[in-house]
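Example 5.3 — VanZ-like domain-containing protein
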Amino acid sequence: MPVACLLTVLTAVCVPLSRGAAAVFAVNRPTAFLWLFSLAVIPALTMPTSLATHGVAFCATGGLTSPVEAQNLLNLLLYAVPALLGVLVTRRPLPVVTGLALASLSLEVAQAFSAGRSCDVADVLFNVLGALAGTGTALPVLRTPRTAARR
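Solution (predicted structure tokens):
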């Protein structure tokens, strides 16, 4: 239930913010909204819901599991969508990838200090790979004549 409430609040915040983002980046408002919403989904799904700590920060560094495991694919997809939309909206791939990588690292550190969540280096790896995949998918779109003319 807390995730649904958080997503509802974040969606309500994204609606007015999308107007400003659309104006700043000269894109349509639905695209700006989808980008902001995809960013809001990340903390809604990954932030610790308990403030209690388990005493010692711990981050799993065990061997990487198969890349096709559901958890790894979800981590990849969770960051690929905002990266794709972020590059299409801002037309600035490097800040988008950097911001998402830092967000992933920050969320994993927060999970290391919280009870009920677990920090895992593999999560950061697949999150960053997702951000790179989303950015790589958006780059050819930026190079199309219609998109280049918009710049």
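Remark. The beta strands are 59-60, 119-120.
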